[in-house]
Amino acid sequence: MDGDTGMDASLQPGEEARQRLSAGPVTSDLSVDELGLLETLGLRPLGLALGSSIYHVGWQRARVMDNTELTVLSQAMHTAREYALKRMLAEAGELGADGIVGVRLTLQQPAWGSGLIEFIAMGTAIGGTGGAGAPAGRQPFASNLSGQDFWKLRRYGYQPVGLAFGCCVYHVAHLGLQKWMQQIGRNAEMTSFTQATYDARELAMARMGADAREAGGDLVVGVSLNEGTWGWDANVIEFSCLGTAVTRDPQRPEPPQPQLVLGMQSGGGATASLGAAAGLSPQAPGTATPLFRPKS
Predict the structure, then answer these.
(1) What confidence score (pLDDT) does residue 180 get?
(2) Which of 133, 201, 245, 285 could potentially form a cystine with 164 if both were Cys, beta carbons 3.0 to 4.6 Å apart?
(3) pTM of the full predicted structure?
(4) Which one, of 57, 99, 96, 103, lies nearest residue 79 by Cα?
């Protein structure tokens, strides 16, 4: 989305952040399984990368009977997230990282002022000799995929190029008195409401697609779609979507064949698992399930 917010997005990590990133020990939100899988790619965690932005959201009027996007609010929500993500990437750059995995983007509303929102972006910066990073001269990539999914992505010959994001804040038209009276006691679809949510979702998804194309991605994986209202009017909603833009690696390895894993736990059926190809159980951390593989 375009628009001049009149604010500075170029904030760099402060001295305290630089000391945290350089002093050690390395901090990470990776699970033990994720750590082990990344090491098979020649990668290691370099530290947690954080970014945040506290943003004042403006105000916009809408006609009560209209389905319409509130572009002022859409722009604010998009820009605040963008600032948080850029500052997270700046911290990863301080570490010399190839990229960031397991990115989480959260929103909260500070109590010390009305109309304020805070976005926090956090993930584990990774680097090493595995060649998972962006091409030379480009900033580190960011991905919302878990360590396990990132490992599978690389094993199947795909390269992450960055996060793709889109959002839309939309005013849903109020139902007129005549229509409201017509619905009393009847089963009927509320078509104006349905159309409004369709329109809002499509705008958010289209912006995510444009973000992915700009980053050089061929497709987007790991997409999450969220709906929320952040203290606005009851008929104002936000749809946001987030995923990882990826492209095929021209030197991709031969993808591994899924292998059969038979769990010994009661009620556990046979599952085809790519994780078994690395000799790692797909079960939750802390479980000890023997692995049996069929003879060739």
Answers:
(1) 67
(2) 245
(3) 0.76
(4) 57
